[in-house]
Specification:
Helix content is 38%, strand content 17%. The chain is of the alpha/beta class and 363 residues long. The protein is globular.
Length: 363
């Protein structure tokens, strides 16, 4: 089976911290013997802009085409406006990029096209599908339906009308798709959790067994503090409360700008990972943390309340509630944390292949 993946999240050698879950999906398909190629559009980054916006770090040095770990990757450049503005201007650029890549790849015709995110990569995926006659599906990680749709509703409705299927991170996203008049199939299929077997722990067995009587803990904020949607302010307020009122001795560490191996290493060293985000889809770092033996607690965001212990979900997005849930999580027995089977790589791989085969057969 020939599969084309399109995504603005795909990690390049210069940006190994980006979208590792998309890379994992590609590698699972490759391991199953499928012919996979990637088109990974990247925004044009003006000189000096990387210092102003860390999310663009490393993108200036990415070539337009390359092979990464045995995968053929095209990385066309497009100009965009902050916050997803001017989507039709971006769409014209991406449709043009699709036509150029199609000419270069000549006889390579995908059986199916899978876009990771709706905006902006679906513009490219749908145009490529139109040219070669291949069906197009999309995965919706989080931003698209949490924020993007608020200012680009008509564009979303137009794009969704050209998709055969949506793969979602959580059940609640179905109502958003329905409100956009999407009539195709929808399935909840989160990204898989992939960590090295040598550092996994058995289900319900944590490496770092918390002990609140000692009061010395490494608490991890699972993002860069500069990202506003991750709400480092709330996290800091809760930690301050634990230190000043409850006398906890807490060391704080953060993620952001790390490759996958360093991210996992930092997760293993933490006693607890704390999510205070204002929006999440199905945060894969939370699953990786539990896979390597680290507790996770959170405000009620994304899919976390569906699989984390009830005691690990804050009653409200306030400093007091987050401080309380940190204390409760550190005192809770490690057997309370485990990963559902549908997060496992084999399940995700097999389910994707089943879906691809179904759509190809119907096309």
């Amino acid at each position: 089976m020939k599969v084309l993946i399109t995504s603005t999240l795909y990690p390049f050698p210069q940006t190994p911290w980006r979208g590792t879950f998309v890379r994992d999906h590609v590698h699972l398909l490759k391991e199953a013997g499928h012919d996979v190629r990637v088109i990974a559009p990247r925004p044009w980054v003006p000189l000096g802009w990387e210092k102003r916006n860390p999310s663009f770090r490393g993108l200036r040095g990415v070539p337009k085409r390359m092979e990464i770990e045995g995968v053929v990757v095209e990385a066309p450049v497009f100009k965009s406006m902050p916050g997803g503005r001017s989507p039709r201007w971006v769409a014209r650029q991406l449709r043009k990029a699709a036509r150029k890549v199609r000419i270069r790849w000549n006889e390579w015709l995908p059986d199916i096209i899978h876009s990771h995110t709706i905006l902006p990569s679906c513009h490219l995926a749908i145009e490529y599908g139109r040219i070669v006659g291949s069906p197009v599906i999309a995965t919706v990680p989080g931003w698209d339906f949490d924020e993007g749709v608020n200012s680009n509703r008509e564009v979303f409705r137009e794009l969704l009308s050209s998709l055969r299927m949506l793969l979602l991170m959580r059940e609640s996203q179905k109502s958003v798709a329905t409100s956009l008049e999407f009539t195709g199939e929808m399935h909840v299929l989160p990204y898989p959790v992939i960590v090295e077997e040598s550092i996994k722990v058995a289900a319900g067995s944590l490496l770092n067994e918390g002990d609140t009587s000692e009061g010395a803990f490494n608490v991890l904020f699972p993002a860069g503090p500069e990202r506003p949607e991750k709400n480092f302010k709330l996290f800091s307020e809760a930690i301050k409360m634990l230190r000043t009122i409850h006398g906890f001795n807490i060391d704080v560490s953060t993620l952001g700008g790390l490759n996958h191996a360093d991210t996992v290493d930092r997760l293993r060293r933490a006693d607890l990972v704390v999510y205070t985000s204002t929006r999440e889809g199905a945060p894969i770092v939370a699953r990786e943390a539990v896979a390597v033996g680290t507790r996770v607690c959170a405000v009620d965001i994304g899919d976390l309340a569906e699989w984390l212990p009830e005691e690990a979900i804050a009653e409200a997005p306030t400093a007091e509630a987050v401080a309380d849930v940190i204390k409760a999580s550190l005192a809770l027995d490690g057997s309370a944390w485990s990963l559902p089977d549908h997060f496992m790589p084999e399940h995700c791989k097999n389910r994707h292949i089943e879906i691809y085969e179904q759509i190809i057969a119907e096309n």
